Amino acid sequence: MSAALRASPKQSNLLRFLKPQTTTPNPSSLLRHLSAEPHHHPPPQNDSSSLVGQVVEPLQTTDNDGNEDKFPELLFPSTGPLPSPRDLLQTIRRLGSTTEALKFFYRVQTVRPQESELLSFTLEAVFEHASREPNSHSKLLDLFKRFKNSGIPFSANAAGLLIRSFGRAQMVDESLLVYNELCPSHRFTHIRNSLIDLLFRRGRVDDGLHMLDEMLKPNAEFPPNSNTGHIVFNALLKRDRIGRAVDEEEVVGLVSKFSKHDVFPNSVWLTQLINRLCRNTGWTDRAWNILHELMKSGGVTEAASCNALLTALGKAREFEKMNTVMAEMKKMNIQPSVVTFGILVNNLCKVRRVDEALEVLEKMNGGENDGFSVEPDVIIYNTVIDGLCKVGRQDEGLGLLERMRSQPGCMPNTVTYNCLIGGYCKSSEIKAALELFDEMNKNGVPPNVITLNTLVDGMCKHGRTASAVQFFREMQGKGLKGNAVTYASLINAFCNVNNIGKAIDLFDEMLEARCSPDAIVYYTLISGLSRAGKLDLASFVVSRMKEAGFSPDIVTYNVLVNGFCRTNKLDKAYETLKEMEEAGFKPDGVTYNTLISYFSKSGDFTAVDKLTKEMAKEGIVPTVVTYGALIHAYCLSEKLDEAMKMFREMSFSSKVPPNTVIYNILINSLIKKNQVDEALSLMDDMKVKEVKPNTSTFNAIFRGLKEKNQLSKAFELMDRMTEHACNPDYITMEILTEWLSAVGETRKLKRFVHGYQVSAPSGKWEK
Fold first, then answer.
1. Which of 356, 456, 532, 660 has the highest Cβ tally under 10 A?
2. pTM confidence score
3. Which candidate, 691, 698, 682, places its Cα nearest to that of 731?
């Protein structure tokens, strides 16, 4: 006791400075602490700097042996308490350089060579000094190699510092050496995290996954934490990473294992994973399973991941599963966003389940949707309006437009009006579409090129081509320029009425306006020119098309082949076929049908036989057009028996049933041969096979019955014509008027014209 009281003033001050400030934590608390991120020890307080100077002084004045000899007694007095390792660590951190720290370490090692824990903490401070100097990774590597086999254990913080420093320098193998030198009980989670991050960043995926496997075991000593999850999912789900590919099945397995440690991918990574799974055909169920598992574990708290799955389920038309996802979201209290309901509404409208989409919208407007309150936005309104217009319910869509005006922040926009204008154009209500366009301008909603194209196309398709051109010119005057779609609609309209000159003018105007024609414009013009028999001009447009960087497709080649065949330019047709095959296109059913039709009409049945055999060899199944061309050709060549033989083959052996056109060809031919009963039998066959006759069918039969003067049968057919709502044309009226007037049955003719059955009682109408 007296010796302690007689201690020197310096010794007493140093002991007070190195006195421990906290109690030693128990082992379990220490384990939890070290499994988290590294703790950086706070530097010593400023009032100890003079004391540190007393300790450091012997190291700085090595020529003074007397001062240097005092070092052991200053740090490790013969009497009194010894400094703790952490207190010693704080003291050495106050030294000025790695060299001074290293000198300090060697003095401690000389005085206390057996104190491994003390030396470990002192060495940690040396590493800290080196890490703050230029070219730190090289200095740290030298120090690591120097002390690797010294028997001094590396502390967890020292190892973490080395791994992070080597990692920044991409020194993977050196980092692994440090990890292997570390005592297994000190390989804490944060150290493993640093190493896994480095391994993934350098493409060493298998090494990283191997280390991760140890952490993911059910009773792992050092389990993963949220940082582990962030490192792993960030590395494995980003697209531009290096290293071997990790398939979705591996990632799903990792997600499942992480969840058992209450570690979950964040919303961004989980959404990416769901999207990747759903992009693979047949993996939507896997995406559903993993999301469902995480929802039950509490790992899904945001709607984004659910939205990704809902999108995929919508594409697959899995509406029951979509409802299940919505129910699960409610159960887990995951708040859906307006995007969630937008996905649901959009997919319902795509499959024309518009009433269900309206129900969703009504619930949203009512402020309650399965316990959630989400206001519909403009996009959802537009989606429902578009869905209504696509099923011909544009008047209801117009009602929604009025409702939008009353909802704050949900005013109708250009898309809203475009949907409605498109709906009215499709239903031939051009006047209503133009009224909406006027209202649009009145309300300050700017039209765009889609508005223009919708109205131009609508007018063209309903025979108002002149109005379409006038409207286009007005819009041009107001600064709204057309695009390739605008010109394609107008060019097609003029080609359809054989006004090729105007179509060419529009094409030239398009080029002058620097509006580059697309493939559709070229095809439209080529098709129109071919139908008009202007094949030379069509070929010129094809060359222009190639110069513009577009390659003709099989449809374009077929149009040209058909045009050359119709104008009897067989050599040109063969040239086109050769070019088509050189371009990599094999003849398809349309090509063969065109050639079969040409040779059939020419009476070259040898060529037809070769073509049909080649067609079968290529695996192309004959269509109703093929059979129609052959039957028509046989009928033209007065080979009615061959035509009927092919018809029977078509009816009983082929999977292609005859249509109205084929029946009409045969009925006409039978009538010309005065085989009326056989023609009537075919018409009865049409009824059995539910093939609807048209006006041409009835006209042919009426002509035959007139020749045979089978009046009662004619009356039956007139009634059938009325039943089928098949309107008579001028040929019908010419045949029946001449015949029935001659036999005194004008009253029945009048009833027929007014849509009454001629065999019914006359009644009041005849008065």
1. 456
2. 0.66
3. 698
pLDDT digits (tens, 9 = 90+) for 54-71: 555 555 554 545 445 555
Q: Are 542 and 557 contacting, i.e. CB atoms less than 8 angstroms apart?
A: no
At residue 11, φ and ψ (nearest 5 deg) are -60, -45
Tell me the two tokens of residue 192. Answer: 């493993």
- Quick one: average pLDDT of 126-148? 83
Q: Is the distance from CB of 246 to CB of 268 less than 8 angstroms?
A: no
Q: Which SS3 state, helix, strand or coil, does residue 369 take?
A: strand
Segment holding 575, helix H or strand E: helix 570-582
What is the per-residue pLDDT across 102-124, written as a single tens digit (0 to 9) for each? 887 887 787 778 777 778 877 88
Buried b (16+ CB within 10 A) or exposed e, 340-358: bbbbbbbbbbbeebbeebb
pLDDT cut 70: percent of the chain above it: 85
State both tokens at 647: 């018809």
SS3 string of 299-314? CCCCHHHHHHHHHHHH
Cα distance between residue 558 and residue 586, in whole Å: 11
Whole-number Cα distances in Å, 584 to 575, 587, 689: 14, 10, 41
Q: How far is CA 554 from the centre of its chain?
A: 28
Beta-carbon contacts of 340 under 8 Å, excluding residues fewer than 6 positions away, are 303, 306, 307, 310, 326, 329, 374
Q: CA 651 to CA 654: how far, in whole Å?
A: 6
End-to-end CA distance of the chain: 146
The residues, any chain, with a CB within 8 Å of residue 726's CB and separated by 6 or more, are 693, 694, 695, 698
Give tens-digit pLDDT for 355-375. 999 988 888 876 555 556 788
